[in-house]
Write a structure and sequence with these properties.
The chain has 20 helices and 2 strands. By secondary structure, the protein is mainly alpha-helical. The two termini are about 35 Å apart.
Length: about 525
């Protein structure tokens, strides 16, 4: 079984072009005059006049801006958005309220559920920096948008990753230092990243996130993680300034590192640090890793109980080829050879369609199971979530066509079409790489179960020598005095998923010397 921490980020955005200026039309050429000595020459045709430039937008009085602002503060962003866009379309960019118009249009769109469109206007404010009073508000709102699926290239890289850090307020400056440090880490320049991270306020959430990013980067570079690195991850798993997801990732890193060092009891302790929401069914990969750890500890019945958990309806669509391999290993170790053979065959039966697609070299992104597995984690998951947001907001746009007016509705339709096309391209690129990795995982598990089937087949026909007896199974405490056991009746309850145990006696034969 392989354990790998996940970390990464990428997505992109669209920019709007300014209208081109018109040129003066040219006049026609004069006609030539024929001479008596020569035949009359035909008159030269005049050049066709050039198309006239479109008329400039009609001037919109500032009262429209004031009225839209009043609607926004009255809690009616739907009525404010259309007039604000109309006013911005006619107002010069040097107008003192132009940046404020962009800001309140962005806030109106975000309040109505159009987070990407609002982010486009806020990012424009950050790039133009025409009004120093608006910029801090725009940056703070952009920082809040980063907690949701968002255009990471437009916001994280092109805005926060390229800001001049000398004039920013403290909170926005901290986030900008964090993002610029991440950019340096991605290109392999840890020294520059540390320069940015050292300027983060001690005890801030950004400082904790920066430490996590540094540890993950170092983990990729070292072959044998030392105790100090594990302790650093352990400290982050208890850092309340990090999000629950980041704390869980830190705890999983501790568990995986201890597992690789064969410290299985320490790995189980780290798995217990992973905190999920109440009544949440949990993570299938977390349970599978815990099952492998208990198997390595010599607790096959506890491991089989966790595998029973993974048969719950919540996890039946999960891509877990190792689940069948582990079940076959447990049956084999307890000399249940026929069940071991059936468990091994179950893998190839369950993934028959995907294995056929791999053998035929088909497009694996069209395989539903492989596609779902590849989109479940990492960069591909983030790209898929952002793509879902764009699709949802694009569908929602139709409900506001009458309220926004033709200009704003047309503009937002183009914005979302461009963003969706680019997000789809990025998602498809990441998906192609991710499905190859999932295919490798499936092929490795398939090869292992084939070896298992061969080994079990030899055991089935092995002669038992005279005088052999059933070997004593290792003692494994099923219940403590304070626990109560109930017979499993086929129902799965979320609060019981980690407590199943399977009664499985050993059938192994001990031969006399």
């Amino acid at each position: 079984m392989s354990h790998r921490p996940l970390l990464a980020a990428l997505v992109s955005a669209a920019m709007l072009a300014a209208p081109a200026s018109a040129k003066d039309p040219a006049g026609g050429a004069p006609a030539a005059t024929p001479t008596p000595a020569a035949p009359a020459a035909p008159a030269a045709q005049a050049a066709p006049p050039k198309e006239a430039a479109p008329p400039p937008p009609e001037k919109v009085p500032d009262e429209v801006f004031d009225k839209a602002l009043a609607d926004y503060f009255a809690g009616n962003p739907r009525a404010a958005a259309g007039p604000l866009h109309t006013w911005l379309s006619a107002a010069p960019r040097t107008h003192e309220n132009y940046a404020w118009g962009q800001y309140f249009l962005a806030r109106s769109l975000i309040d109505l559920g159009f987070t990407h469109a609002g982010g486009v206007y806020l990012a424009r404010i950050a790039r133009e920096r025409s009004n120093p009073n608006v910029l801090p508000r725009a940056l703070e709102t952009l920082r809040e948008l980063t907690d949701r699926p968002h255009d990471e290239v437009m916001i994280d890289e092109q805005v926060f990753g390229a800001l001049d850090l000398g004039f920013l307020p403290e909170e926005a400056g901290a986030y900008a230092h964090y993002q610029q440090g991440l950019v340096d880490l991605r290109v392999g320049n840890e020294r520059w990243a540390n320069t940015h991270f050292s300027k983060l306020p001690e005890g801030s959430a950004e400082a904790s996130r920066a430490r996590f990013a540094l540890l993950v980067t170092r983990l990729r570079e070292v072959k044998e993680p030392n105790d100090e690195l594990i302790e650093d991850f352990l400290g982050l798993s208890k850092d309340e300034k990090l999000t629950r997801e980041s704390r869980n990732e830190a705890a999983l890193a501790v568990a995986r590192l201890r597992y690789e060092r064969k410290d299985y009891k320490g790995a189980l302790e780290a798995y217990e640090l992973v905190k999920l929401p109440e009544l949440d069914p949990g993570r299938a990969t977390l349970y599978l890793e815990e099952a492998w750890t208990r198997y390595k500890l010599g607790e096959p019945r506890a491991a089989m109980g966790i595998l029973t958990t993974l048969d719950a309806p919540s996890f039946r669509d999960e891509f877990l080829p190792d689940k069948y391999l582990l079940r076959a290993l447990i049956y084999r170790d307890l000399c249940h050879y026929l069940p071991a053979k059936r468990a091994a065959k179950e893998l190839t039966r369950r993934f028959a369609d995907s294995l056929e697609s791999i053998r035929e070299r088909e497009d694996l992104t069209q395989d539903p199971r492989m596609r779902r597995a590849a989109s479940a984690h990492g960069n591909t998951k983030r790209a898929a979530r952002f793509l879902e947001v764009l699709e949802l907001e694009g569908e929602r746009l139709g409900r506001y066509a009458g309220s926004f007016g033709e200009r704003l509705y047309t503009h937002l339709t183009k914005t979302y079409d461009l963003a969706h096309a680019e997000a789809q391209r990025i998602y498809q690129t990441r998906l192609e790489e991710a499905v190859r990795q999932e295919a490798d995982t499936l092929l490795r598990a398939t090869e292992q179960v084939r070896l298992m089937e061969y080994e079990v087949g030899l055991k089935l026909y092995e002669r038992v020598k005279k005088g052999a007896k059933v070997a004593a199974a290792p003692e494994e405490e099923l219940l403590s005095p304070s626990q109560v056991g109930f017979t499993f009746d086929g129902e799965y309850w979320n609060d019981e998923l980690r407590s199943y145990r399977v009664r499985l006696d050993s059938r192994c034969i001990e031969e006399n010397p």
